[in-house]
Amino acid sequence: MLDKVLITCAITGNLTTPEQTPHLPITPAQIAQSALEAAKAGAAVAHIHVRDPETGRPSMAIELYREVVARIRDGNPDLILNITTGPGGRFVPSADDPKVYGPGTTLMVPEQRVEHIALLKPEICTLDLNTMNSGREVVINTPGNVRRMAKVIREAGVKPEIELFDSGDIALLNDLVTDGTLDPAPLCSIVMGVKYGFQPGPETVLYARGLLPAKATWTAFGIGRTTFPMAVQSLLAGGHVRVGLEDAVYIARGELAPSNAALVAKVRRLVEELGATVATPQEARGLLGLGGPS
Question: pLDDT per residue over 117-140, tens digit each?
Fold first, then answer.
């Protein structure tokens, strides 16, 4: 078990809806404020998606990202920002012709998916390696497109956080490390609980951990009711932890989490009661090899 543990808070995500919880941050002001509150509760990293303020639907609008980043930087320049590049990779086949995209398809050229990263230069951004079923949709991240996104990320001086949804993703990760596309000491997240990906459990964490590059820094996290059990499992297996309204809307059985800060505060108590210390943003920068605030 690590002595210094990073807490990442996933603020709003792509799939959680306002119908699931009235506490979901939607506007740039709400997302930024929620991230700042999470930092006060113990988060060193804020994982950021943005939403259309009018509809609450996921968005990739650069002006929304720009506003969120500016507000967080003004309020807490030490907080590490991890901005998503996941949107833009979903395909929904037409009912009439599976070769034709239907409503809900978001496929974009790789460079468009990381345009906001090149412009805003957060410390970290996600890089998904999965091609998999996700409900009616298929998430598509081909090796070639991943390499194109990784090139833009690298040239922007941003550290990719590699999101891993199944063992095949880790095989691709190892290939990308071998050919020099990715650093030999990658930052990784093992994602558990997506229906057709890694299923939550201690065996999954240990299995996935064993496939990672030897120098990887990693977090394992679960979605829904497995959020806190998998946070503890990640901790016990030598990883970091992640919580947030992107991953779970309940803080206890039948009790909606009132805020991201409340989720962070609960996982912080678990970390500290098990004998570890929660890393500050400044300490996290050192652990991850990041520079000072931009």
Answer: 999 999 999 999 999 998 788 999
Classify residue 293: in a domain, yes or no.
no
Neighbours of 94 (CB within 10 A): 12
Does residue 284 register a pLDDT over 80? Answer: yes
What distances in angstroms separate CA 286 from CA 6, 18, 53, 165, 214, one per listed residue? Answer: 11, 36, 35, 27, 19
> Residue 294 has what pLDDT?
54
Total-model pTM:
0.96
What's the domain range around 277?
A: 4-288
CA 95/CA 89 separation, integer angstroms: 19
Q: What pLDDT sits at residue 180?
A: 97
Q: Provide the number of structural domains found in the chain.
A: 1
Q: What DSSP assignment string belongs to 130-172?
A: --EEETTEEE---HHHHHHHHHHHHHTT-EEEEEE-SHHHHHH
Residue 233 lies in a domain: yes
251 is a domain residue: yes
Q: Are 235 and 1 in contact (CB under 8 A)?
A: yes
Structural domain includes residue 227? yes
